[in-house]
Amino acid sequence: MAAPNPTGFDMKTFKAAANPRSVWAKKDPWARYEAWRYTGPFSRWNRFKTGFPGLGIATVAFAVYCGYEWAFLKEDHHGEGHH
C-alpha cells in the first residue's frame, strides 16, 4: 500500500472532476447552455480560421505576383553610369 500523500491531493478525485462526464457536469444546470460555445462554428479551429478571412487568398495572390515580377519585369540596367 502506498504511503498517504502529505499534501492531501487525491489524483482520483482530480481526474473525476476533470472528466466532462463526471457527476458534477451532470448536475450542472448551465452545462448544456454553455456547450454551444465550443461546438460547430464556434469551435477553436473555426474561430481561428475565420479570424483572418482573406489571408489564404492574399498569400497566394502575392506569391503569384512575386513570381510574375521575377520572371517578366526584369529591368535592363547594364550601365547605370551611361546616360
From TrEMBL:
Subcellular location: Mitochondrion inner membrane
GO cellular component, as recorded: mitochondrial inner membrane
GO biological process, one term: mitochondrial respiratory chain complex I assembly
Topology in membrane: Single-pass membrane protein
Keywords: Electron transport, Membrane, Mitochondrion, Mitochondrion inner membrane, Respiratory chain, Transmembrane, Transmembrane helix, Transport
Keyword Nucleotide-binding in annotation: no
Family matches, as InterPro entries: NDUFB3
Primary location: mitochondrion
Role summary: Accessory subunit of the mitochondrial membrane respiratory chain NADH dehydrogenase (Complex I), that is believed not to be involved in catalysis. Complex I functions in the transfer of electrons from NADH to the respiratory chain. The immediate electron acceptor for the enzyme is believed to be ubiquinone.
Family statement drawn from the similarity comment of this UniProt entry: Belongs to the complex I NDUFB3 subunit family.
Record protein name field: NADH-ubiquinone oxidoreductase B12 subunit
Species this protein is from: Helicocarpus griseus UAMH5409
UniProt lineage: Eukaryota, Fungi, Dikarya, Ascomycota, Pezizomycotina
